[in-house]
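Need residues for this backbone.
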């Protein structure tokens, strides 16, 4: 039984149209005529729902945004030029100088340097915690804390957070929780678990074949009654709540980030992403079963494999209880030394050596010498980057072929 049946129907039915062009229309225009001054005024004040200018959105992007919002039970979404742009949009639309972030778990390299090197230059600090440091996380919250940021699966340390428990901490303290769900779309439903904002790099499993760079941010609705966004901590958002009600976070993100930073997605990128979405449930189902199978086979051969499906993994119980639809395409192998890792990568005939993940093809990369080469030893240790660590993203090949190839590469 496919774990993602409900999405399979939803995506293909909504990406295609029953009248006119079946494939989504690529609306390739930077500007849009308003027709009349009254319509122009309405478009600018938000009362008329028509395209304003491609930096603020276009109809192809809007189609993708609607489908992704529905996937996560959000009130709306904004697509961006890349996954890093999505994280930038989600955070920069809320932060001001002096604010701070609490970041939990293993972190994508770009996000780590964005928080630790770039935001700090603008007076916004980040404190980093491991997934289960609940008490320390709660103690670290102070009046400057604006965001708790979490990855659904630690990349590449494969640690799994208890998203609901962290959402409870966020909610108790009135802090916004942002979850980077890039690795687990459909498998993990962050908004249902209590997150406020979900970010994606759609470059990965959503598009699924290295054809296009993209990102998306999904926002929950502002509640009619009490809501953490209505507290003093988020006073910059209040004018949007007054004007746009439950849609306030979309308006806030579009004005504060999209308009002012311009991380806009192109219509052609959204088109390619929509094509990827159609088959994502089938691909994801295949990969989450393959990754378990490959991880187990290599583990039984005595390789040092890191995947939470393996008995004895620190988060094996959490994987079984909370990640019943898998945790995406990733696993790691620690070959013990850089030399042994390079040898494995030279000998594998099947894996493509690249920094991407979530592709149709199986991908592999030595971590310490590439994505994490800029990081000092202490930071690498915190992120779980050992000298022999290879990150693998399992693809759609026959899993037995992957196992056979990896066993010969490891010998
Ligand atoms: C790739 C990735 C990003 C960044 O996405 P880009 O599309 O490359 O900008 C962010 N978070 C995670 C978890 C990723 O894997």
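Answer:
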């Amino acid at each position: 039984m496919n774990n993602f049946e409900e999405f399979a129907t939803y995506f293909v039915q909504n990406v295609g149209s029953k009248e006119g062009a079946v494939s989504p229309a690529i609306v390739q225009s930077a500007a849009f005529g308003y027709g009349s001054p009254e319509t122009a005024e309405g478009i600018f004040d938000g009362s008329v729902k028509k395209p304003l200018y491609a930096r603020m959105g276009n109809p192809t992007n809007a189609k993708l945004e609607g489908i992704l919002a529905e996937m996560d039970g959000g009130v709306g979404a904004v697509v961006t030029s890349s996954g890093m742009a999505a994280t930038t949009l989600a955070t920069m639309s809320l932060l001001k100088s002096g604010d701070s972030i609490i970041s939990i778990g293993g972190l994508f390299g770009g996000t780590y340097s964005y928080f630790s090197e770039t935001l700090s230059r603008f007076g916004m600090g980040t404190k980093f915690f491991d997934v289960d440091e609940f008490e320390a996380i709660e103690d670290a919250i102070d009046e400057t804390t604006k965001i708790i940021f979490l990855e659904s699966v630690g990349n590449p340390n494969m640690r799994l957070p208890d998203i609901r428990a962290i959402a409870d901490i966020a909610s108790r303290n009135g802090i916004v929780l942002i979850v980077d769900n890039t690795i687990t779309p459909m498998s993990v439903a962050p908004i249902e678990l209590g997150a406020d904002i979900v970010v994606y790099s759609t470059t990965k499993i959503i598009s699924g074949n290295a054809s296009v760079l993209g990102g998306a941010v999904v926002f929950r609705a502002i509640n009619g009654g009490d809501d953490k966004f209505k507290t003093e901590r988020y006073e910059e958002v209040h004018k949007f709540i007054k004007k746009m009600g439950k849609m306030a976070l979309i308006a806030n993100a579009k004005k504060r980030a999209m308009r002012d930073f311009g991380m806009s997605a192109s219509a052609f990128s959204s088109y390619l992403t929509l094509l990827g979405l159609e088959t994502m449930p089938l691909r994801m189902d295949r990969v989450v079963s393959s990754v378990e199978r490959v991880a187990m086979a290599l583990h039984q051969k005595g390789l040092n494999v890191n995947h939470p499906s393996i008995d004895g993994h620190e988060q094996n119980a959490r994987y079984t209880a909370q990640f019943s639809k898998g945790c995406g395409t990733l696993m790691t192998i620690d070959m013990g030394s850089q030399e042994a890792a390079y040898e494995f990568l030279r000998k594998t005939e099947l894996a493509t050596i690249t920094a991407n993940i979530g592709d149709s093809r199986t991908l592999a990369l030595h971590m310490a010498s590439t994505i994490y080469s800029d990081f000092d030893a202490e930071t690498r240790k915190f992120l779980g980057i050992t000298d022999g660590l290879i990150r693998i993203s399992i693809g759609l090949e026959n899993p037995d072929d992957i196992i056979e190839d990896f066993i010969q590469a490891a010998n």
